[in-house]
């Protein structure tokens, strides 16, 4: 019996357990790789020359943070999804103060393009991002 399936009231089918772990590991590693890359680019200091790469790396972090967030706070509020989320939060020790559980933050990151449409053509006023 694996650690994820140690709880008697809820179990994850072992192949799915492997999928969740590997998927979450991929998203975490990808986001962390981008964070390290941003750090290296900031150390170089030539922001205007690297602005596109910096933007891509931030976008990758935001995308994978949203993916990880859905494991712990699913968009669809079906009972089975909520049980899985509670189980994963307990397993990975994700408490309620974790930013991954902030639905407003996740929506702001994942739907920023919808807010850009609301921007005026001049730079007078920008809509709130979060």
Protein traits:
single chain; 130 residues; mainly alpha
In words, what does this structure look like?
This protein is mainly alpha-helical. The chain has one domain. Helix content is 64%, strand content 0%. Helix 1 (14-44) packs antiparallel against helix 2 (47-72) and helix 2 packs across helix 4 (103-110). It is globular and about 55 Å long. The model has no long low-confidence stretch (mean pLDDT 84).
List the helices and strands and how they pair.
Elements: H1 14-44, H2 47-72, H3 79-91, H4 103-110, H5 112-116
Helix pairs in contact: 1-2, 2-4
Q: What is this entry, summarized?
A:
The chain is mainly α.
The gross shape turns out to be globular
Strand content: under 5%
Average of per-residue pLDDT values: 84
Rg estimate, integer Å: 18 Å
Please identify the structural class as seen in this structure.
Answer: mainly alpha
Number of domains: 1
What profile does the largest beta sheet have?
Answer: none
Number of helices: 5
Task: Give the termini separation.
Answer: 42 Å
Low-confidence stretches: none
SSE succession: HHHHH
Helix content: 55-70%
Number of strands: 0
């Amino acid at each position: 019996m694996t650690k994820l399936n140690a709880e008697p009231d809820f179990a994850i089918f072992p192949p799915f357990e492997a999928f969740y772990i590997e998927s979450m590991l991929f998203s975490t590693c990808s986001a962390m790789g981008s964070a390290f890359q941003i750090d290296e680019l900031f150390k170089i200091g030539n922001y205007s020359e690297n602005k596109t790469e910096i933007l891509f790396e931030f976008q990758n972090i935001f995308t994978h943070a949203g993916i990880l967030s859905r494991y712990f706070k699913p968009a669809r509020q079906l009972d089975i999804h909520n049980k899985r989320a509670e189980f994963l939060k307990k397993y990975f020790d994700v408490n309620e103060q974790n930013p991954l559980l902030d639905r407003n933050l996740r929506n702001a990151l994942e739907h920023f393009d919808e807010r850009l449409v609301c921007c005026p053509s001049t730079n007078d006023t920008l809509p709130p991002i979060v």
